[in-house]
User: What shape does this take?
Amino acid sequence: MQIITSKWRGTVAIPPSKSYAHRAIIAAALAGGNSTIKHVALSSDMQATLHAMQTLGAKITLSKGNTNTLYTLSVCGISRKVHDDAPQIDCNESGSTLRFTIPIALALRGAATFRGAGRLAQRSLAPYQHLFTDKKIEWNQECNQFPLHIQGTLKPGKFMITGKISSQFISGLLFALPLLTDKSTLIITDTLESRNYVAMTRDVLKHFGVYIEQSKNTYLVTPSAYRPKTYTVEGDWSQAAFLLLMGLLGERVAISGLNPMSIQGDRIIESIFKSMGGTLYWEGPLLVAEKSSLKATTVNVSQCPDLAPAIAGAMALAEGRSVITGGKRLRDKESDRITSVAEALTSLGAKVSETEDGMIIDGVPELRSARVSSMNDHRLAMMLSALSVAVHGEIRLEQAEAVNKSWPEFYQIVNQLGGQCIE
Assistant: This one.
């Protein structure tokens, strides 16, 4: 795809939070009775979670919401009747779907087979593998390959797990442990990174009638019945990062649909861009970003790894030397996001060097035309599209369709804001 633009200007409605939607669909599927989930975008990741919960026994029907791109889901919860078969769950490329549903499948069925696509098989499942092997649950998988077969009874008790690789393992257990017959204790044995994502999980669980008590790195879980509810998914701060980047590099982009008091960890992008000299302000319900002269900074992304590509894009055009740290987990994403972002920015003429857990970026005044691959990574594709306004010429983006993973309508937004996307 050829992407050309000389400005970014306009008002955009942000898509619903993918992270909240995953959680709401799962909680509704685990609730007895009928729930309604409003304001859902059917990205490929979201469809993976829908199909996973349907495979486990939920009945889900879709109807169009207020626009052609948003849906309302009617969810009839999973029956607790005994099943003899082990479900076959296809997670496509969704790490959230895979990591959330492994313990849920054990709690509901005692066995399952998981499959996936793309780079998903290479993303770590070690915390679960170690934990469940200790609990005498069979774990059969060839190294970095699907299928994954699990079988065994998930019994209540003490669950000790690392928080350094991904918070998704903790969230998956928090969904599953209330389904067991007695109390359980979940203990994070080290540092919990992306802790706000666990807070989001607890927030959704509370909405559906499940209360998790927390004391520092320990979660106390009692058996609970999920209750059906009506739930509206709020706007996605991680996707807003790319629109804000467009505004800071272009002319003026206003975003509607964001919750200024959200507990999404990626809401910190507003303060990060402001710390770089970005002009951002609220105009009623709109968050506005205007063209700015950006300054270098240092950002630790351990609690907001999904923001790293947007932050790196801003740093590439900021005055001075910037540093990204705390991003070791970026190497375990849809691409190795340290290497792929560094190589993509370098192809465009930016000055970037990798470190073990981040990047050192010396800002340049403008970027050059280049052919660049997204490496099938949706966030890399969005970053490159946003940067096209600073390119002297065009960006020829390969694997542009990677955005379907989280925001299928992204290139419509690019065109709406003044860009040209030519197949």
User: Anything to note?
Assistant: The chain has two domains: 2-15+234-422, 18-225. The chain has a mean pLDDT of 94. The radius of gyration is 21 Å.
